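User: I'm putting together a teaching handout on how multi-component assemblies are represented. Below are the sequence lines for each component of a complex, exactly as they appear in our records. Could you produce the 3D structure of the whole assembly as C-alpha cells, so the students can see both representations side by side? Please keep the chain order the same as the input.
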Amino acid sequence: MPETTTLTETKTHVSPQPPWNVIVHDDPVNLMAYVTYVLMKIFGYNENYATKLMLQVHQQGLSIVWSGELEKAEFYVQQLQFHQLKTSLEQAE
Amino acid sequence: MRVAPTLEGGLRIDPETAEDWHILRAILLDANGSETDLATRLGGMVTDERIAEDWRDFVVPDLRESFSDDLNQIQAAIETAAAFPKDGESPIWITREDAFSWYGALNQARLALEEKYGFGPDPESDPANLSPIRREALLRSQFYCALQSFILRHAL
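Assistant: Of course. Below is the structure of the complete assembly, with chains in the same order as your input.
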C-alpha cells in the first residue's frame, strides 16, 4: 500500500489596521493657488488632482488628501503644517 | 512702493516712502501679534491621544523654530536694505531661495490679523465704514495678500 502524505495548509487572516487619514481643513487665509501648489509639492500630485482636493477643502471645509500607514501619514501632516496648512490626522473608522 | 519680478525668477521690492518701510516692518509686528502662536495652533490640530503628546513635544517646537526663522530672515532682509542704500535706492530682493520664508512670514501676519479682527474671506466692501485701527489692519492684510500672490506667481 503506497504511503500517503497529508498536506496541511494553514491560513491566518489578519485584519489590516484601518488607515490613517491626512485631512486638510479650510482657513480664511491660505490662497487657493498656494494650497494646490503645496499638495503638488508634497505628494507629487498632478495639477488637476491637487486642484480637485483644494476645491474640496474650499467648498466642503476639509478634504482627506492622503490615507495610509501611520508613519507616512505623520510625515505628511508635519510637512503640511510646516507649509502652514491646517492639517489633522485621524484613523479611519 | 514698487514690486517687480526679476529675470532670475524672484522679486524686487523698492520702498519709496516712510510709509512703505512702516508697512514692511509691520509684517513682523503683525505676525507676532497673535495670542497663541501658529505652531501651537497647528499642533493642536493633532488630537488623537496616541500621538498628540509626541506631537506637542517634538513637532510643535520644530514648527515654532521654522516659523521664527522665517520672520528673522525677512526682518534681516528689510533692515539690511534700509541700512545700506545704494545710489539712493534700497531694494529688497526676494530670491527663489527666500520666497518660501517671505510667503510664510506674510501668512503668519495675515493669520494673526484674521484671528484678531475676524475679517473673513469677504471683508467689508467699504473700508471707510471701519474704525481707523480696523481699516489699517484690513489694508495691511490686503497688501500682504497681494504680495503673497506676487511671490506665488513669480518666485515659488
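A couple of points students might notice: The longest helix of chain B spans residues 52-83. The CA atoms of residues 9 and 153 of chain B lie 10 Å apart.
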